[in-house]
UniProtKB/TrEMBL annotation:
It comes from Paramormyrops kingsleyae. InterPro entries: LITAF (IPR006629), LITAF_fam (IPR037519). One of its GO terms (cellular component) is cytoplasmic side of late endosome membrane. Its main location: membrane. This is Lipopolysaccharide-induced tumor necrosis factor-alpha factor homolog.
Length: 149
Protein backbone atom coordinates (compact mmCIF):
# COMPACT_ATOMS: atom_id res chain seq x y z
CA UNK A 1 0.00 0.00 0.00
CA UNK A 2 1.64 3.15 -1.15
CA UNK A 3 1.09 6.42 0.56
CA UNK A 4 0.55 9.47 -1.45
CA UNK A 5 2.99 12.33 -0.92
CA UNK A 6 1.51 15.65 0.06
CA UNK A 7 0.85 18.00 -2.80
CA UNK A 8 3.77 20.22 -3.69
CA UNK A 9 2.83 23.82 -3.83
CA UNK A 10 3.71 25.59 -6.93
CA UNK A 11 6.21 28.39 -6.47
CA UNK A 12 5.52 31.66 -8.13
CA UNK A 13 7.51 32.09 -11.28
CA UNK A 14 10.87 33.83 -11.07
CA UNK A 15 12.05 32.19 -7.79
CA UNK A 16 14.78 29.51 -7.72
CA UNK A 17 13.67 25.97 -6.92
CA UNK A 18 13.94 24.69 -3.31
CA UNK A 19 17.12 22.68 -2.53
CA UNK A 20 16.98 18.97 -1.76
CA UNK A 21 17.70 17.65 1.77
CA UNK A 22 21.27 16.71 0.90
CA UNK A 23 21.92 20.15 -0.52
CA UNK A 24 20.36 21.86 2.51
CA UNK A 25 22.45 19.99 5.14
CA UNK A 26 25.75 20.17 3.23
CA UNK A 27 28.18 22.71 4.72
CA UNK A 28 28.86 25.66 2.50
CA UNK A 29 32.41 26.17 1.25
CA UNK A 30 33.87 29.10 3.21
CA UNK A 31 37.12 30.32 1.64
CA UNK A 32 38.80 31.56 4.90
CA UNK A 33 37.26 29.88 7.98
CA UNK A 34 38.05 31.39 11.38
CA UNK A 35 40.67 29.22 13.13
CA UNK A 36 39.85 27.97 16.64
CA UNK A 37 41.56 29.64 19.62
CA UNK A 38 45.12 28.34 20.14
CA UNK A 39 44.43 26.69 23.52
CA UNK A 40 41.41 24.89 22.19
CA UNK A 41 43.30 23.58 19.20
CA UNK A 42 46.13 22.20 21.43
CA UNK A 43 43.79 20.46 23.83
CA UNK A 44 41.89 18.86 21.02
CA UNK A 45 45.10 17.42 19.55
CA UNK A 46 46.56 16.01 22.79
CA UNK A 47 45.06 12.75 24.00
CA UNK A 48 44.04 12.30 27.62
CA UNK A 49 46.63 10.53 29.78
CA UNK A 50 45.74 6.97 30.65
CA UNK A 51 44.54 6.42 34.21
CA UNK A 52 44.22 2.67 34.04
CA UNK A 53 47.61 1.64 35.49
CA UNK A 54 48.15 4.52 37.93
CA UNK A 55 48.32 3.51 41.61
CA UNK A 56 45.61 4.76 43.95
CA UNK A 57 46.53 7.83 46.02
CA UNK A 58 47.91 7.14 49.48
CA UNK A 59 45.71 8.67 52.15
CA UNK A 60 47.25 8.94 55.58
CA UNK A 61 44.95 8.78 58.60
CA UNK A 62 44.37 12.10 60.34
CA UNK A 63 46.53 12.82 63.36
CA UNK A 64 44.60 12.85 66.61
CA UNK A 65 45.87 14.95 69.48
CA UNK A 66 44.67 13.99 72.94
CA UNK A 67 44.48 16.88 75.35
CA UNK A 68 43.59 16.56 79.03
CA UNK A 69 41.36 19.37 80.21
CA UNK A 70 41.05 20.05 83.92
CA UNK A 71 37.94 22.00 84.82
CA UNK A 72 38.73 24.00 87.92
CA UNK A 73 35.81 24.54 90.19
CA UNK A 74 35.27 28.15 91.09
CA UNK A 75 36.26 28.75 94.68
CA UNK A 76 34.25 31.28 96.62
CA UNK A 77 33.95 32.42 100.21
CA UNK A 78 32.42 29.12 101.39
CA UNK A 79 34.06 25.66 101.71
CA UNK A 80 33.65 23.45 98.61
CA UNK A 81 34.01 19.75 97.93
CA UNK A 82 36.89 19.21 95.50
CA UNK A 83 39.50 16.62 94.54
CA UNK A 84 42.92 17.65 95.76
CA UNK A 85 45.47 17.49 92.89
CA UNK A 86 48.29 16.67 95.36
CA UNK A 87 46.83 13.75 97.37
CA UNK A 88 43.97 12.88 94.92
CA UNK A 89 41.43 12.71 97.76
CA UNK A 90 37.96 14.24 97.55
CA UNK A 91 37.86 16.72 100.42
CA UNK A 92 35.93 19.71 101.72
CA UNK A 93 38.31 22.66 101.73
CA UNK A 94 39.58 24.34 104.90
CA UNK A 95 39.37 28.15 104.78
CA UNK A 96 41.70 30.88 106.03
CA UNK A 97 40.80 34.56 105.77
CA UNK A 98 43.51 37.14 105.13
CA UNK A 99 43.42 40.89 104.60
CA UNK A 100 43.61 41.77 100.91
CA UNK A 101 43.21 45.04 99.05
CA UNK A 102 39.56 45.70 99.95
CA UNK A 103 40.03 46.20 103.75
CA UNK A 104 42.90 48.61 103.10
CA UNK A 105 40.84 50.66 100.63
CA UNK A 106 37.92 50.83 103.06
CA UNK A 107 40.25 51.73 105.94
CA UNK A 108 41.77 54.61 103.96
CA UNK A 109 38.30 55.78 102.85
CA UNK A 110 36.99 55.76 106.44
CA UNK A 111 40.08 57.62 107.65
CA UNK A 112 39.63 60.33 105.00
CA UNK A 113 35.94 60.70 105.90
CA UNK A 114 36.87 61.29 109.54
CA UNK A 115 36.79 57.93 111.29
CA UNK A 116 40.34 58.24 112.60
CA UNK A 117 39.84 57.06 116.23
CA UNK A 118 40.01 53.32 115.51
CA UNK A 119 36.75 53.08 113.54
CA UNK A 120 38.77 52.96 110.30
CA UNK A 121 40.16 49.57 111.46
CA UNK A 122 36.74 47.85 111.41
CA UNK A 123 37.24 46.41 107.83
CA UNK A 124 40.16 44.31 109.18
CA UNK A 125 37.83 42.61 111.70
CA UNK A 126 35.14 41.63 109.19
CA UNK A 127 35.79 38.28 107.38
CA UNK A 128 33.29 39.20 104.65
CA UNK A 129 35.78 41.79 103.31
CA UNK A 130 38.91 39.59 103.43
CA UNK A 131 40.41 37.27 100.79
CA UNK A 132 39.77 33.53 101.29
CA UNK A 133 42.47 30.85 100.86
CA UNK A 134 41.28 27.24 100.34
CA UNK A 135 43.48 24.44 101.76
CA UNK A 136 43.32 20.65 101.59
CA UNK A 137 42.67 19.36 105.15
CA UNK A 138 44.71 16.17 104.48
CA UNK A 139 47.96 17.40 102.91
CA UNK A 140 47.60 21.15 103.69
CA UNK A 141 48.18 22.06 100.02
CA UNK A 142 46.82 25.45 98.83
CA UNK A 143 43.97 24.68 96.40
CA UNK A 144 43.07 28.23 95.47
CA UNK A 145 42.52 31.81 96.58
CA UNK A 146 39.30 33.84 96.32
CA UNK A 147 40.16 37.53 96.12
CA UNK A 148 37.61 40.28 96.80
CA UNK A 149 39.30 42.75 94.45
Amino acid sequence: MATASPPVEELPSGLPPLPSYEEAVRLPNIPNPVPPPPDYAKTMQEPCPPHVNSPPPIISPPQVTVQNVVCQQSLGENPVQIQCPACLQVVVTRLEHSSGILPWILCASLFIVGCSYGCCLIPFCWDGLKDVTHYCPNCHQVLGVFRRL
